[in-house]
From TrEMBL:
Name of the featured protein: 1-deoxy-D-xylulose-5-phosphate reductoisomerase
GO molecular function, one term: NADPH binding
The 1-deoxy-D-xylulose 5-phosphate reductoisomerase C-terminal domain, residue ranges: 219-302
Species the sequence originates in: Nelumbo nucifera
Pathway note: Isoprenoid biosynthesis; isopentenyl diphosphate biosynthesis via DXP pathway; isopentenyl diphosphate from 1-deoxy-D-xylulose 5-phosphate: step 1/6
């Protein structure tokens, strides 16, 4: 009996209602399924698919390639979602490190007032507002600005910001699957991706990852947990990664009694105990849905099997994630719950940038 699966699928077990079928099943691609107590298990663990699994962005290790730097002066970046949580924190980093980074293009959704302020301060060459009906309002807000950037509204503007010729790295801080098209455009233009939009890999991993390899583009995780894993695998020998331990704060409802959950309001879900994030990810954190998405993202980023990715509740949000190596050592990345840290590492990798204690307090484990 041959089984054909129309799309890439991870299969842990298959049930057959008809117990009269043979005890051995063949999958296209040479994989074998064996019946065991009315269940079917793999003869060997494999990715069961009509096509090969996509190559991970970082297959269990991260080693910088020599000679990748190709710009003079501050690193030029584009930001998709400049008025959101990731975008504004990225611009905080740029403002504090003008000798390290400069902004060449900005894209926002509908917050014209904030976008205009950002344009006046950071002087990008290109600006996009996704809501085309706000174009005139943006032009009016910039009427007194000394610097007049090119403005392209709508989805096309988003794509042009992503593939701006001067940008070396594109920060994808836009929420949801809307980030997929501009990310693909940036990759096709050869831009490294500071990935804060997890839907890019969750929805498009099998397409995006081969595309990134084709164009020699680095996908650098800006999410705190995946940045922690990325930092932990720096310089690991090939094949050294054994297991990924994703930490989770538990979200706003971690300590709530079950009987109280039926009465929760949106405002309750938005009260994250540790992190200052956008509304969607804060709600997803409260329901732990976000952690499920992060498991999928970790699988695509680092090539770990799903069985080798575990979630650990860590209410303090000091350990941002861990990796276990083949010799059972566990490596962890620690820091205050501040999204600026993974963002600045993503932008500066493989370097480390000095951060002032005034705006970046040092971690104190005795507090």
């Amino acid at each position: 009996m041959a089984l054909k699966f129309p799309s890439p699928t991870e299969i842990g077990g298959i049930s057959f209602l008809d117990s009269s079928k043979a005890d051995l099943f063949k999958l296209k691609g040479g994989f074998t399924l064996k019946r065991k107590e009315n269940r079917v298990t793999f003869g060997r663990k494999a990715h069961c698919s009509a096509q090969a699994p996509p190559p991970p962005a970082w297959p269990g290790r991260a080693v910088p390639e020599p000679g990748r730097k190709s710009w003079d002066g501050p690193k030029p970046i584009s930001i998709i979602g400049s008025t959101g949580s990731i975008g504004t924190q990225t611009l905080d980093i740029v403002a504090e490190n003008p000798d390290k980074f400069r902004v060449v293009a900005l894209a926002a959704g509908s917050n014209v007032t904030l976008l205009a302020d950002q344009v006046k301060r950071f002087k990008p060459k290109l600006v996009s507002v996704r809501n085309e009906s706000l174009l005139d309002e943006l032009k009016e807000a910039l009427s007194d600005a000394e610097h007049k950037p090119e403005i392209i509204p709508g989805e096309q503007g988003l794509i042009e910001v992503a593939r701006h010729p001067d940008a070396v790295t594109v920060v994808t801080g836009i929420v949801g699957c809307a980030g997929l098209k501009p990310t693909v455009a940036a990759i096709e233009a050869g831009k490294d991706i500071a990935l804060a939009n997890k839907e890019t890999l969750i929805a498009g991993g099998p397409f995006v990852l081969p595309l990134a390899h084709k164009h020699n583009v680095k996908i650098l995780p800006a999410d705190s947990e995946h940045s922690a894993i990325f930092q932990c695998i720096q310089g690991l020998p090939e094949g050294a990664l054994r297991r990924i331990l994703l930490t989770a704060s538990g979200g706003a409802f971690r300590d709530w009694p079950v009987e109280k959950l039926k009465d929760v309001k949106v405002a309750d879900a938005l009260k994250h105990p540790n992190w200052n994030m956008g509304k969607k990810i804060t709600v997803d954190s409260a329901t732990l849905f976000n952690k499920g998405l992060e498991v999928i993202e970790a699988h695509y980023l680092f090539g770990a099997e799903y069985d080798n990715i575990e979630i650990v509740i860590h209410p303090q949000s000091i350990i941002h994630s861990m990796v276990e190596t083949q010799d059972s050592s566990v490596l962890a990345q620690l820091g205050w719950p501040d999204m600026r840290l993974p963002i600045i590492y993503t932008l500066s990798w493989p370097d480390r940038i000095y951060c002032s204690e005034i705006t970046w307090p040092r971690l104190d484990l005795c507090k």
